[in-house]
């Protein structure tokens, strides 16, 4: 079953986020086979990120925790909090997926 990982940046960590971003994006590209979706949580004006949301196709909490632990954002101490939760996919790309294999 997939997992949802929600991250919350430390306060005033915008510069750190920008410095770590290239390595973070490289990591995501290397792990794209696990990504159902992911992206930053943005301010209303779309100018500042304050964390992220990842939906990962892994089989266990341990795998989800290992995924986020290896992210350069996590390794660079960007996050104040990280929540890992099992997730049931119901809709994807505007399509009901509940009855799919």
UniProtKB/TrEMBL annotation:
SUPFAM superfamilies: Dimeric alpha+beta barrel (SSF54909). InterPro entries: Dimeric_a/b-barrel (IPR011008), Sec-metab_biosynth-assoc (IPR051807), YCII (IPR005545). This is YciI family protein. Residues 1-88 form the YCII-related domain. It comes from the Bacteria. Belongs to the YciI family.
């Amino acid at each position: 079953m997939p997992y949802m990982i929600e991250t919350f940046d430390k306060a005033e960590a915008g510069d750190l986020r920008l410095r770590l971003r290239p390595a973070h994006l490289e990591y995501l590209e290397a792990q794209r086979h696990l990504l159902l979706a992911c992206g930053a949580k943005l301010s209303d004006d779309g100018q500042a990120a304050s964390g992220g949301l990842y939906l990962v196709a892994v089989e266990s909490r341990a795998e989800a925790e290992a995924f986020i632990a290896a992210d350069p954002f996590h390794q660079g101490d960007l996050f104040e909090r990280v929540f890992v939760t099992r997730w049931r996919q119901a809709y994807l790309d505007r399509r009901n997926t509940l009855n799919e294999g």
